[in-house]
């Protein structure tokens, strides 16, 4: 048991430096979420609990608006599904890696965010730690940053005067950074090009207030239809 705990301690020590970029990002966007959540009249404890049990990033930002009157349960389900549908592709590419992790795979599936997925796919596991312990450490560290940021934002929003106008743009800015990083690292940029063109097309057809869901549906359809061709020209870092 002592050696088991020592192995995890070393895994967390090795994983932490790789998660520092996520730490800086998650603290700030977590704080932004906590401030928005506190404006609805909720305690910082609820913000932390939501980040602990839901942990959906952009889905949590969207969920803040679900507290408004007139939002139906079906709308909540549909919008949450569409915002997080990209995780289907993440999960498929990591099935083989998670298969040998036993019960830990259930948390790994739950904790699979955009940033964690990027780390799991691109980070080489150090030779002196077990792979499953290292991967779990990455996921747990990333979520801890989000939970801490949410609670800090909730506390700040409850006790300090804040003008939160425009603060929800923090999540958009993070996705722009992720997009740029993926664009710079990948040789096959077809999925990114498909996403941009589909979004621009739907923006012209449906307007700024209604283009997001049609764009996501179109992107999903195009990626499913062209999956084999896209995979043929792209490296598979998660296998």
From TrEMBL:
Keywords, in A-Z order: Cell membrane, Membrane, Transmembrane, Transmembrane helix, Transport
Family as reported in the entry's similarity comment: Belongs to the AzlC family.
Localization: Cell membrane
Main location: membrane
Protein's membrane topology: Multi-pass membrane protein
Record's protein name: AzlC family ABC transporter permease
GO CC entries: plasma membrane
Biological processes, Gene Ontology terms: L-valine transmembrane transport
């Amino acid at each position: 048991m002592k050696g088991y705990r020592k192995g995890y301690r070393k895994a967390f020590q090795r994983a932490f430096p790789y998660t520092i970029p996520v730490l800086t990002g998650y603290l700030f966007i977590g704080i932004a979420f906590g401030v928005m959540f506190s404006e609805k009249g909720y305690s910082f404890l609820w913000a932390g609990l939501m980040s602990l049990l839901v942990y959906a990033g952009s889905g949590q930002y969207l969920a803040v608006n679900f507290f408004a009157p007139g939002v139906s349960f079906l709308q909540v389900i549909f919008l949450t599904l569409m915002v997080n549908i990209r995780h289907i592709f993440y999960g498929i590419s990591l099935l083989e890696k998670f298969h040998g992790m036993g019960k830990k795979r259930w948390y790994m599936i739950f904790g699979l965010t955009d940033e964690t997925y990027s780390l799991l796919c691109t980070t080489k596991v150090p030779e002196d730690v077990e792979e499953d312990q290292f991967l779990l450490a990455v996921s747990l560290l990333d979520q801890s940053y989000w939970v801490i940021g949410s609670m800090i934002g909730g506390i700040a929003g409850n006790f300090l005067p804040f003008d939160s106008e425009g603060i929800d743009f923090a999540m958009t800015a993070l996705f722009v950074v992720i997009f740029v990083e993926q664009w710079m690292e990948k040789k096959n940029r077809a999925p990114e090009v498909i996403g941009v063109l589909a979004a621009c097309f739907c923006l012209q057809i449906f307007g700024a207030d209604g283009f997001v869901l049609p764009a996501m549906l179109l992107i999903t359809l195009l990626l499913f239809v062209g999956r084999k061709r896209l995979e043929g020209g792209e490296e598979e870092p998660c296998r």
